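Notebook entry, structure prediction.
Reason for the run: the old model in the group folder had no record of what sequence produced it. Starting over properly, with the input documented here first.
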Amino acid sequence: MGKEKVSMKQKTPLELGFRMPAEWEPHEATWIGWPHNRTDWPGKMAPIHWVYAEIVRKIIPGESVRILVNSKDHEIKARRILTRVGVDLSCVEFFHFPTNRGWTRDFGPIFIHRKGRLSSEVAIAHFRFNAWARYSDWERDDRVPELAAKALGCTIFPVRFKGYYVVLEGGSIDVNGRGTLITTDECLLDSTTQVRNPGLNREEIEEVFRNYFGVTNVLWLGRGIVGDDTHGHVDDICRFVGPHTVVLCQEENPGDINYCPLQENRERLEGMRLENGSKIEIISLPMPAPLYLDGQRLPASYANFYISNTGVLVPTFNDPKDRIALGILAEVFADRPVIGIHAVDLVWGLGTLHCLTREQPA
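New structure, fully documented this time:
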């Protein structure tokens, strides 16, 4: 938990009728941070800008894209590349919010939503960000939710438990929009390696989710995949694709280091229930063949897809299983096209499409 203690008492989002929508519910916009930190993609920065441009190009047919940039020069560079690939810049807004990195899913605004009789309202649940309890440069990223709330004129709820600010990354959770959230022990309950909230136990974390996301049911998987420097983010292994359905990564090779953790996650899920007591429909999603950088295993996963209003963007890896994964997701998302985005360069940064994007509900 954050070190700064606070004493202000206010109603929680739950008490005010807010909840966290599922990703497939209608968006007003997608937020993304234009790349600039060369240490994220060592020796690969040039192609990364073009991958970002392709992501934006595939999102804007259905919603606007809000891009974080560090400066006017940074914006000009982004505009130049977006224009060259044919992006309609009238659908793009730039926000001059300096960042340390570009992983907007994890430090960006986590939006919550409530519907009234005559209108609806969007607010931000402001968790603190500490760079996955791993890196020392995070202060700029940590300020983005407050800057976004000010720019949008929306309410922001600082997330606190027992008077202390709570740390959470967006990629560590996924929801079905009906009251169930899925996460992992490795990420949120770790007490030795990458510790986000020292002393916060399972029941207390679930209370935070209930008060700020309107969640009544939390599903705890075990470990994430090897190579994920976030230490267990769920968006690389298991995702809700409907109110009652998840896709779950499965490694077919018993000799692969991911085989046992993914099998254990399947066993856990098979014994779990949704918020209404019903069983979860589990659809297997293959894993691509291992990818490495300088001997380090990279977290290549088809589960790191992003659901936009008019398409599902799926990372691909020049792998024979690309076609299988795209086919599985095309059957699941019959209401919108499934689009492969080349992510071999992106995953050198230890994340891909879902890690880079953050939806803002309509």
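Summary: The longest strand covers residues 27-33.
The old model has been moved to the deprecated folder.
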